Amino acid sequence: MSSMPLSYPWQMPQWQQLAGLHEGQRFPHALLLGGPSGIGKLQFGRALLCSLLCEHPKNFLACGECHSCQLYQSGSHPDIRELCPEEGKRQIGVDQVRALQQFTSQSAYREGGRKLVLIHPAEAMNPYTANALLKTLEEPAGDTVLVLLSHSPSQLLATIRSRCVQLTFPLPEHNSALKWLQNQLGQTEDAEALLRESGGRPLAAQQLYESDGLSQWRAQDAALAEVVEGKKTVLQLADSWQDREVPDVLEWWLNRLAALIKHLSAGQPLNARWQAYTSMALPAVYLQYEQALGLRATLLRGAALNKRLVLEKLLLDWFDAFYGRAPSRAY
Ligand SMILES: [Zn+2]
C-alpha cells in the first residue's frame, strides 16, 4: 500500500486555482501542467487525480480512507491510467495511446464517476503519437479528465497545447524549497549547496543527493578544466565519459550552462571551476545551451544516437565557442 500523494508547499497557488475550478464545477477536460523538471509536478498530478476521485474530499484533499482512495493506495484504481515511456524506452508508444482511447471510451468503474489520465512527460510523444492523442483530446468520452505534464510545453504540438488549460509551475521560492529539502535530508546535509547545484529545483536536489550526483558533477567540472589547462584533449575527455549516460551528462551540462548564463547576465554566483568561461560572450553560451536543449529533445523523441559522437560534438562545439573557431583543433 502506498500513501496518498500530496502536493508540495510551493504548489499552493496552483492547487487553489484548481480547487476553485472544481468547486465552481468548471474543471477542464484537459490540463497541461508545465514547468521545469525536478519541482514536483508529477506528485501534484497524482494528488490531483486522488482529489478528483475521492468520495469524501475535504477542502479538495483526498480523504485517504474511502473506497476510491483505498483503490488508489493499492495501486489498482480502475479509473486511473498513467502514461509514460515503458521501461527502457524514452518514448510513449502509439500502442499505449491507442489503449488509452479504449480506456476512455468505456464507462467509469464507479457509477457516474470520472476517468482520469496522467501523461508524463507529454514531450515523450512523437508527432505521430501526439496526433493519436488529439482525437481523445478533441472528443473526450464522458467525464474524462486528461492531465498532461511537460518540462517544456513549447516543444509540444500547438494543436495539443491549444486544447488544454495550461497551468504554469515556476521554480519554487528559495526558502520554501530549502526548508523542504532540509526536512528530507536532515540538517547535517548541505541542502543549500545541493539546491544551488540543482538550479533551485528541490526534487532534483534530492535526487542528486541520493545518487551521489554532486560528486560526479564536480568530477566532470574538474575533467573539463583539465582541457582548459592543457592536461587532456577533448577526445580523451569524451573517451573517459564512455561509462556515463548521455542524459545524465546533459543534465549536468544544462545546469552548468544555465548557471553561467545567469552569472553573465545577472551577476549570480558561479562555481569556481566555471570562472574560466566568464570571458565568453553571452550569446555564444546561449547558443550552446539551446543546442543542448535541442539534443535533449532529440533524445526524448527516441532517436538512437552514438554516445561517443554526441559527447565529442558537445565538447568540441563548446571549446570552439570558448577559443573562437580555430582552423585546426588544438584541444
Ligand atoms: Zn477518499
Helix content: 40-55%
Shape: globular
Please report the total strand number as a whole number. Answer: 5
CATH superfamily of the largest domain: P-loop containing nucleotide triphosphate hydrolases
Number of structurally distinct domains: 2
Poorly predicted ranges (pLDDT <50, ≥5 residues)? none
CATH topology (level 3) name of the largest domain: Rossmann fold
Q: Which percent band covers the strand fraction?
A: 5-15%
Major sheet: arrangement of strands: 2-3-4-1-5
Bound molecules: zinc ion
Rounded to an integer, what's the Rg over CA atoms?
A: 22 Å
Tell me about the biggest sheet? 5 strands, parallel
- String of helices and strands: HEHHEHEHEHEHHHHHHHH
* Overall average pLDDT: 91
Defining key terms:
2 domains, alpha/beta, five-stranded parallel sheet, 14 helices, 331 residues, Rossmann fold, binds zinc ion
Descriptive overview:
The protein is of the alpha/beta class. It has two domains: 9-168, 3-Layer(aba) Sandwich (Rossmann fold); 211-323. Helix content is 51%, strand content 8%. It has 14 helices and five strands. It has a five-stranded parallel sheet, sandwiched between helices. Strand 2 (80-83), helix 4 and strand 3 (115-119) form a beta-alpha-beta unit. The longest helix has 21 residues, at 246-266. It is globular. It binds zinc ion. Residues 54-56, 62-63, 65-66, 68-69 line the site of zinc ion.
Layout: helices, strands, pairs:
Layout lengths: L11 H12 L6 E5 L6 H13 L13 H7 L6 E4 L10 H12 L9 E5 L7 H12 L5 E7 L7 H4 L3 E4 L5 H12 L5 H7 L4 H9 L2 H16 L5 H7 L5 H21 L15 H19 L6 H17 L8
Parallel strand pairs: 1-4, 1-5, 2-3, 3-4
Helix pairs in contact: 4-5, 7-9, 8-9, 11-14, 12-13, 13-14
